[in-house]
Amino acid sequence: MKIVLSVAALASVAYADITFNVVGYPSTNTGAFGVNVGDQIIKLASNETTFPVWTGTVPGSTGATEYAYVELNAAGAAVKTEPFKRKLSDPAATTTPNEFFERQTTVWGLPRIPYTYFATYPSNTKAFRAEQIATFHVTAPAALMAGMLADPMNAQNVKADIRFISNDTIHSQTNVTFGLSGKSSKEHVKQAFRFKFDTAISQKFFHRPNLKLRSMVMDPTMMREMLYIDMLNSAGVATQQGAWVRLFINNEPYGLYLMVDDISGSFLKQTVHGGDSKVANGSLVQMNAFPENGQQFNADLVYKGPSLADYQKGNYDSKKLGPGDTAEEPIKELIDFMKDLQDFDPASTPDPIAYWEQRMDFDGFLRCMALEYLG
Ligand SMILES: *[C@@H]1O[C@H](CO)[C@@H](O)[C@H](O)[C@H]1NC(C)=O
Ligand SMILES: *[C@@H]1O[C@H](CO)[C@@H](O)[C@H](O)[C@H]1NC(C)=O
Ligand SMILES: *[C@@H]1O[C@H](CO)[C@@H](O)[C@H](O)[C@H]1NC(C)=O
Ligand SMILES: *[C@@H]1O[C@H](CO)[C@@H](O)[C@H](O)[C@H]1NC(C)=O
Questions:
Q1: Which residues, if any, are the signal sequence (predicted)?
Q2: Of these four, 45, 214, 304, 320, which has the most CB atoms within 10 Å of its CB?
């Protein structure tokens, strides 16, 4: 009995039909993709819920089968074949990951930077997986997109349909708010983008509904920000998470981007408060690091007076009012903090550390400063 069973088990591995999945944009509207198995080309299928993923099961293929993806013309003839052979990394698997056409590696084994401290709340989300480059497929009204890119300074958000494709996930969402991101980055040809998934109408993105796609135009290595995120995680500092993605808008390639959390209420809830929705909301202020338009100061946390009017416009933008803020004085809590900072005298304060621990996450602040100094 035992012998028969194990033979049956072996047989099911050896003859398992493999389902192939390739991510590809045909060079013409009538093109398609296929897979070359044993010098036979099998056409793969794609439809409006899966495009640009092309899928098909090849009878008789096994985990040991070598294969290559091919781009096909309307007649089904190969116009381009991958110049390398693929093989499943897990011989017992019956489906390939979603593999990008002409990119040999889908998931890299990247060693993690060791954690010196535990991350405050290690981010367990499918959105950010640094071992792979996911594909962000965006479909948006062409005329509105053209308008947005033609005049970035006055760009309006649009509603877009998005599809996020990783090695093992295809996540689609319609009617997502999509627009340009950043200030100085708008001066570059390669624009940065932002998505907002509206949780009020059940739009989801792996618990991270506010995302930015950074263009990384200032960094030719395209690695600095990701490395810094890794280091902050390693030091247990609450931070944005990130991962690289390929961006396609209306089937046109826009390049490699770093997808990161946009700092928002939901980000703070997930990252700082471990998803606890009962934590009271504090104030959220966006500070500008670069003096602009002939301004003298940036957001340097120097106390200049008790009222918002005492601070240069644009240096401190209130994003959310805290319990001590009002509509008239939206950064009152921050101003109180700056005043404490100015008045602080370590010599006359009985317990200086306790003084600051009451006002801030002192330990997190010191870790941030250490990394700021090193980075
Ligand atoms: C699209 O393709 C997927 C995968 O092959 C399949 O599961 C799905 O039913 C198809 N949808 C439509 C609308 O044909
Ligand atoms: C997808 O990639 C992740 C790493 O980013 C890996 O942990 C996971 O096992 C992969 N899934 C499949 C089905 O290959
Ligand atoms: C699209 O989203 C907006 C909110 O952002 C909502 O008011 C509108 O009803 C949605 N439209 C569709 C077709 O879902
Ligand atoms: C915090 O603000 C969000 C809206 O941004 C709200 O949904 C949530 O209920 C607030 N939490 C508390 C505890 O007030």
A1: 1-16
A2: 214
Residue 129 token pair: 């997986």
Instruction: Give the domains, in start order, of the chain with CATH numbers.
Output: 3-100 (2.60.40.10), 134-268 (no CATH), 283-374 (no CATH)
Return the ligand 2 atom nearest residue 90 CA.
14
| Tens-digit pLDDT string for the chain (375 aa) | 444 444 444 444 455 799 999 999 999 999 999 999 998 999 999 999 999 999 999 999 999 999 999 999 999 999 999 999 999 989 899 999 999 999 999 999 988 888 888 766 656 678 899 899 999 999 999 999 999 999 999 999 999 999 999 999 999 999 999 999 987 778 888 999 999 999 889 999 998 889 999 999 989 999 999 999 989 988 888 888 999 999 999 999 999 999 999 988 778 887 888 778 788 888 999 888 777 667 777 889 999 999 999 998 888 999 999 999 999 999 999 999 999 999 999 999 999 999 999 999 888 899 999 998 887
Model-level pTM?
Answer: 0.86
Distance between CA atoms of residues 146 and 156, nearest Å: 11
Ligand 1 pocket by Cβ (under 6 Å):
45, 47, 49-50, 55
Q: Which of 171, 172, 186 is nearest to 292 (CA)?
A: 186
Q: Which of 272, 277, 318 to mutate to test the pocket of ligand 4 (most atoms within 8 A of CB)?
A: 277
Q: Residue 177 CA: which ligand 3 atom is closest?
A: 5
